[in-house]
Design brief:
By secondary structure, this protein is of the alpha+beta class. It contains four helices and nine strands; from the N terminus they run E-H-E-E-E-E-E-H-E-H-E-H-E. The strands form two sheets. A seven-stranded mixed beta sheet has the order 1-4-5-6-7-9-8, sandwiched between helices. A two-stranded antiparallel ribbon has the order 2-3.
């Protein structure tokens, strides 16, 4: 599959927002107790034959680049890695020292992907989802493979 990576523009914003609403109970995403409105964040989309096949939304702050949301609509096709490559380039250009992200304990496919890419586990926040649900009650209690969603796992990579 040959696709191009382009910034999220008004042409793609509604598509990305729709996917985040459906797959992330968006538009808000929480990491480390911070509520992020994905509709206002920068990002990139992967496009194949005029169809969005993946996206990544990020925030640059305090010398780091946080990946707020990433999704490949066709897993194991290299889309996620290419989107992170785009963030790596952006982070270097912005003078960031690290890229980081948070996922939940049920998301073992993502954890495997991040570690294969080169991210390392920095922190585990036990029972963080209890506090996160106070900010975003629509976070499900159960996730992938019927695993209770309870904890946050933070991964990072230095650039």
């Amino acid at each position: 599959m040959t696709y191009k990576i382009v910034p999220i523009t008004s042409e793609y914003r509604a598509i990305v927002d729709s996917h985040i609403a459906k797959n992330w109970a968006g538009p808000f995403v929480i990491s480390r107790g911070t509520l992020h409105d994905t509709r206002t964040q920068q990002g990139f989309v992967a496009v194949f034959s005029d169809e969005v096949v993946g996206y990544i939304v990020y925030n640059v702050a305090d010398g780091g680049c946080e990946i707020i949301a990433i999704e490949s609509l066709h897993p194991r096709q290299g889309i996620g890695a290419t989107l992170i490559d785009a963030i790596m380039h952006t982070a270097k250009k912005e003078g960031c020292s690290r890229i980081w992200l948070v996922t939940t304990n049920d998301n073992t496919p993502a954890m495997r992907f991040y570690q294969r890419y080169g991210f390392v586990l920095k922190a585990v926040r036990l029972n963080a989802m209890k506090e996160n649900r106070l900010l975003k009650p629509q976070i499900p209690l159960v996730g992938i493979d019927d695993v209770p969603i309870a904890h946050e796992f933070e991964f990072e990579m230095f650039v």
